[in-house]
From TrEMBL:
SUPFAM superfamilies: Glyceraldehyde-3-phosphate dehydrogenase-like, C-terminal domain, NAD(P)-binding Rossmann-fold domains. Residues 141-271 form the GFO/IDH/MocA-like oxidoreductase domain. It comes from the Bacteria. The keyword Metal-binding does not apply. Keywords: Oxidoreductase. It holds the Pfam family GFO_IDH_MocA. Residues 7-129 form the Gfo/Idh/MocA-like oxidoreductase N-terminal domain. This is Gfo/Idh/MocA family oxidoreductase. InterPro entries: Gfo/Idh/MocA-like_OxRdtase_N, Gfo/Idh/MocA_oxidrdct_glycsds, GFO_IDH_MocA-like_dom, NAD(P)-bd_dom_sf.
Length: 367
């Protein structure tokens, strides 16, 4: 399977688009047993842009016309453009029968995301969302522990994803700070990752009560001083359908000491999942008779070798893309991959949290 090649188109060559291409190159360096992704074509907003100039150094075909992809030998498309621009390349992929790899959220609007999930499922296309924490070694190990039943019932949890990119008020306006293009702020951008990971580990969220804040309310943009209309920070209490309860905090103003983790408190011990570090789960327990689950996962899910492994996020994106490539060629993996349906479920929780924040923390049912 590793000798096969998949011809890829990329929609959007900003930071995250470049990150995906780099992650696929990491798979080649690490000799990951997955089909090779060949990046043939890139679609950019403007051929006069910096993104177009950068793309021309790596892609044989660069265009600002999505329809021009019809003349290219494409097997799949990777959608990394701003959230509000995902639908058009998605529609083209449906028409052409391409595989679809899409950044989260799959749309800036929940209703559109729901439509996309329904249509891609009906079309029967291989698809996957870049909710890459599912491929974190500690998340996979934590899932093995929970499935083993040795830890008993899950009682509580705490999840944090604290970044600092927007604390500086002099940072200029970005599409990520505009609801019309992003659909939300820290809760949409970061919270969706934690929610999807919690869904994988603990099951569905039943209801949510949240607080949201925007600390830097105006920034310099193309039209001068512009309003920021998404949250910089959010905190939520999540009630799970299982009966477990926990908290989630996300921030884009936590400068200098960024941290990402999930703690899960069970009857017989606590699992610490260090999302910011590329290492396994930590189990803290007062029981001496617990045995690590003897689970052997597919080689493609094994952590990248220490000599080639890079940042945690790059490693996780590499594994996610390798899994997508394998699935395009008919292969499978032994953990649940993030689908459009999964992205919609997480976005429903995001929407409930945003509504709760607007309503002074009122408890909102999900779905």
């Amino acid at each position: 399977m590793g000798n096969q090649s998949i011809h890829m188109a990329l929609h959007g060559y900003g930071y995250i688009g470049r990150f995906h291409v780099l992650a696929s190159q990491l798979n080649l360096a690490c000799a990951v047993a997955a089909p090779r992704l060949v990046w043939d074509a890139a679609v950019v907003r403007s051929l006069e842009s910096e993104a177009a100039a950068r793309a021309a150094e790596s892609f044989s075909f660069v265009t600002d016309d999505l329809a021009a992809l019809l003349q290219q030998p494409i097997d799949a498309i990777d959608i990394t453009s701003p959230n509000a621009l995902h639908y058009a390349p998605f529609q083209l992929a449906l028409e052409m029968g391409w595989g679809i790899y899409c950044e989260k959220p799959i749309s800036h609007q929940l209703e559109e995301a729901q439509e996309m999930a329904q249509r891609v499922k009906q079309a029967g296309l291989v698809h996957q969302v870049a909710l890459m924490y599912r491929f974190h070694p500690a998340v996979i190990e934590a899932r093995d522990w929970l499935l083993s039943g040795q830890l008993g019932r899950v009682l509580t949890f705490r999840a944090e994803l604290l970044h600092g990119g927007y604390l500086n008020p002099n940072r200029t306006m970005s599409w990520r700070l505009q609801s019309g293009e992003a659909g939300g702020g820290a809760m949409m951008d970061l919270g969706i990752h934690l929610i999807d990971t919690l869904h994988m580990l603990l099951g569905r969220v039943d209801s949510v009560s949240a607080a949201t804040k925007t600390f830097v309310t105006r920034r310099s943009g193309q039209s001068g001083d512009e309003a920021v209309d998404v949250d910089d920070w959010a905190s939520a209490t999540l009630q799970m359908t299982s009966g477990a309860v926990g908290t989630l905090e996300v921030s884009r103003v936590h400068y200098g000491r960024e941290r990402d983790f999930i703690d899960i408190v069970c009857e017989h011990g606590v699992l610490h999942i260090p999302l910011e570090s590329y290492r396994g789960v930590e189990l803290h327990t007062h029981h001496s008779d617990l045995l690590a689950p003897e689970v052997s996962h597919a080689s493609i899910l094994q952590p990248l070798g220490a000599k080639f492994a890079q940042s945690t996020l790059l490693n996780l994106h590499a594994t996610g893309l390798a899994v997508f490539a394998r699935r395009l060629c008919g292969g499978t993996v032994d953990i649940p991959v993030p689908t459009f349906d999964d992205a919609v479920l997480a976005q429903q929780v995001v929407a409930a949290a945003m509504e709760s924040g607007d309503r002074d923390g009122a408890r909102i049912q999900v779905g």
